[in-house]
């Protein structure tokens, strides 16, 4: 310990105990560690500009920064989805006067390139690592780099390329063969690809290598089945998970919240409301499935997709009850808005109004002005659909969003012209047809519409356009390659393939009639193609195989099934003096 300091006496550096305890180089090291922590905190907040400001200040104070700090900055760029800035930092690090790079740098760059879907650049980087041409000392291709590249291909849905990575580079880094992680990444790739059901073949291959599937393996396979439209097989995989967990006496294979929310998507696509309710009951009784706000949100969305927003509202009320013990369960504003959209389509003004009021008071997190504006728009839509024009006009005049300069959405404009998004509000459907029916009830089967051939001569088929304004065109393989319209039949000697336009928009057979009508009323859309639900994931825009096409929905066939009515509205007392006026005052 130093002697006691007298008043007014200056203390020199050589006797300063703090300086002896913390010399200059330790202070500098401490500041650089603090800088690394600061960069990581800013990256979590996605404040990348502040990261670069901190780097510039540190360079001015300390000169060249070490590779640990620069790696943290590269990670921040990747976390903020700015791969170009990450590559710019890499170029700075590999300069002769730079700090250098290591395997961590390359692993981070591979992750960023994969997330940016720049697979070619990622492969170039791996090729440089394998050949030994990559800058940096003691850098080499490792298992981490290999799996990062496979994961990048899987994330992009390029399963074939992911498998090619293993065939090309596996011998360079591993001598023990494939691992469970490798198969998990491959299954993930197939589940995101155009042929997700191909992932199921990897299960047998995995077992042939004596590898035990993990929970994430089953979850990826279930996702593949849901995306492929094979719900029965997805449910069988759920049973297989439970049996495997029981056989091995482990809870690590029991389904978790990811398993169940993925299955909820499949049940919602099948519009199986009872199945959704049964699945939720099972979720509550499964010890490894922890219901949180995200899980409840998925449940509500599934109920809405299955056509029962009322059941979704019941589950949201459960969230509110749980929020009394844990505030994290409070539903966010988007849950309220999702329910309001569904109720607005049905003209349920009371439910929309109740949710609109509750959202401001009960929603978790911040309710933005845009959220309130959309809630007002949905209330107007519900009022118009239910025929209460006066209430809609009153709400429009008092919209706070308009006063704040928030423009009306396209959906709101459609509502203000007496058309909700389901577009059926001013029409009366023929007996036996509901706006919630599926399009396969109204479509013309593929065989009955008699598509034209690309080689047909216009003059020989022109009479068919007196009945249909647009007729699909197929090639010699039976694939739908376009649509021929009456307005384009000007040269009688021309081939149909020369005058046809691009293929029509497609909808699945489980699409509600109301949504199809909305699409048909769009400009230049006179024909819709109805495809099988299970093959919709593999369709290409410029070519659709005939066996995947179930039929077509035309304007003529659709609107002959509905009869326009004079649009009579129930006008309340507040609107008696403004009857006949437009809503868009």
Automatic annotation (TrEMBL):
Species for this entry = Ceratodon purpureus
Spans of repeat PPR: 102-136, 179-213, 214-248
Q: Which Pfam families match?
A: CBS (PF00571), PPR (PF01535), PPR_2 (PF13041), PPR_3 (PF13812)
| Protein name as annotated | CBS domain-containing protein
- List UniProt keywords, sorted A-Z: Repeat
All copies of the CBS domain together span 496-533
């Amino acid at each position: 310990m130093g002697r006691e300091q007298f008043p007014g006496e200056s203390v020199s550096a050589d006797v300063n105990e703090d300086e002896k305890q913390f010399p200059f180089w330790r202070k500098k090291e401490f500041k650089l560690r603090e800088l690394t922590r600061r960069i990581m905190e800013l990256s979590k907040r996605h404040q990348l500009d502040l990261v670069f400001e901190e780097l510039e200040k540190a360079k001015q104070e300390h000169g060249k920064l070490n590779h640990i700090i620069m790696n943290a900055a590269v990670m921040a760029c990747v976390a903020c989805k700015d791969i170009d800035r990450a590559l710019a930092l890499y170029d700075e690090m590999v300069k002769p006067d730079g700090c250098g790079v290591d395997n961590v740098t390359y692993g981070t760059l591979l992750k960023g390139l994969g997330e940016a879907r720049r697979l070619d650049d990622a492969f170039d980087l791996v090729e440089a690592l394998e050949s030994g041409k990559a800058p940096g000392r003691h850098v080499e291709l490792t298992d981490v780099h290999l799996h990062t590249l496979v994961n990048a291909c899987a994330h992009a849905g390029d399963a074939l390329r992911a498998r090619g990575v293993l065939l090309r580079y596996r011998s360079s880094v591993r001598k023990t063969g494939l691992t469970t992680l490798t198969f998990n990444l491959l299954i993930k790739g197939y589940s995101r690809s155009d042929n997700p059901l191909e992932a199921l073949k990897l299960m047998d291959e995995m077992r042939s290598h004596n590898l035990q599937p993990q929970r994430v393996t089953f979850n990826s396979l279930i996702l593949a089945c849901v995306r492929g439209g094979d719900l029965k097989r997805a449910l069988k995989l759920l049973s297989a998970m439970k049996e495997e967990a029981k056989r091995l006496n482990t809870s690590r294979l029991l389904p978790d919240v990811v398993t169940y929310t993925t299955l909820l998507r499949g049940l919602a696509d099948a519009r199986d409301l009872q199945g959704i309710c049964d699945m939720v009951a099972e979720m509550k009784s499964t010890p490894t499935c922890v219901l949180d706000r995200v899980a409840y949100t998925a449940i509500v969305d599934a109920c809405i997709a299955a056509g029962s927003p009322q059941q979704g509202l019941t589950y949201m009320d459960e969230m509110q009850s749980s929020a009394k013990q844990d505030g994290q369960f409070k539903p966010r504003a988007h849950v309220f808005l999702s329910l309001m959209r569904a109720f607005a389509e049905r003209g349920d003004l009371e439910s929309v109004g109740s949710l609109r009021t509750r959202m401001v008071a009960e929603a978790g997190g911040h309710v933005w002005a845009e959220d309130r504006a959309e809630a007002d728009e949905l209330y107007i839509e519900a009022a118009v659909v239910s025929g209460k024009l006066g209430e809609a006009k009153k709400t429009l005049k008092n919209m706070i969003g308009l006063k704040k300069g928030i423009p009306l959405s396209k959906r709101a404009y459609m509502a203000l012209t007496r058309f909700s998004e389901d577009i059926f509000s001013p029409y009366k459907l023929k007996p036996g047809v509901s706006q919630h029916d599926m399009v396969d009830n109204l479509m013309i089967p593929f065989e009955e519409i008699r598509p034209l051939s690309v080689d047909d001569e216009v003059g020989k088929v022109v009479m068919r356009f007196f009945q249909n304004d647009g007729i699909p065109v197929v090639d010699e393989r039976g694939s739908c390659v376009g649509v021929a319209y009456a307005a384009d039949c000007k040269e009688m000697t021309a081939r149909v393939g020369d005058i046809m336009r691009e293929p029509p928009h497609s909808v699945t057979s489980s699409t509600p009639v109301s949504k199809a009508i909305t699409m048909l009323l769009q400009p230049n859309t006179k024909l819709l193609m109805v495809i099988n639900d299970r093959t919709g994931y593999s369709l290409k825009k410029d070519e659709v195989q005939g066996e995947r096409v179930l039929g077509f929905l035309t304007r003529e066939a659709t609107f002959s099934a509905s009869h326009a009515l004079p649009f009579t509205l129930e006008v309340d007392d507040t609107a008696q003096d403004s009857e006949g006026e437009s809503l868009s005052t």
